[in-house]
Design brief:
This protein is an all-beta fold and about 80 residues long. The chain has no helices and six strands.
Length: about 80
Amino acid sequence: MLKSQFARSGIELGPSDGPRNELKVRVSDVVYRGDHLQVVVDAANGSLVVKSTRKATTPRIGDEAVASFSPEQCWIVA
């Protein structure tokens, strides 16, 4: 199972350890940016661009995962 934590965004790929929001995603792009990786994941309703630390497991294009994030990091835009 892919497990990777994304810096600053609070998004994790992999099983959550507590009460968190979760989305099924597929990795569509990974770009090396020197001190971090830029990872694009596709969910049912759109894509997320996240910043991954280089210490994390490097995801591969096509990997399926669960993206999770805390309720405090959600915004509703109407």
